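Reopening this one. Same input as before:
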Amino acid sequence: MGELKTGRGLHQEVGISRACNTRWGSHFKSFNCFILKFGTIMDILDNIVETAHSMDERSGATGYIRIAQTYEIAFMLHSMKEVLGITNDLSTCLQKKEQDIANVMLLVKVAKRRLQELRENERWDLFVVEVSVFCIKYNIVVPDFDEPYNIMRMAELYPDDFDELSMCALENQLANYIIDVCDIDKRFSRFTWAL
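Same output, byte for byte:
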């Protein structure tokens, strides 16, 4: 698009490289670069749509744009960046030729604790805000998580964990929880959730 200067050794740190199957660090770098270059990637795909020589190129680029500009993709990109960032030191340590088992065990404990902290309310809220800010920046529709049944939409992001039977059970548990909270705990009385 004429925005980058060409030459030897330029743009090596910000390029999206092919991830290696056995190196978590390469995946971590790829997810970071994809997030950082998301706008540029969308611009390039838009350019392909406008200048494509074939319908296959045009429809492929259009499909990539449609998929990439969803909350689910933004959520997955940021989730993978967080998880791989937390485990990056452990990954680097495990790849060394000489292993320091005591250090590896310490890094396993640190990674486990940080992953558990990610699931805690305050850290989780910050993560959801980060994803939402990214979505707003790139005009991606952010679900309204104040509505109770959007929890069901969040569960749909984890199809391996929530099969059809689990989704049905979750829907019933959610309805029971809302009724219990609204009837018992007065702190939640401001919510007017219709079931």
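So the earlier flakiness isn't reproducible anymore. For the record, The mean pLDDT is 80.
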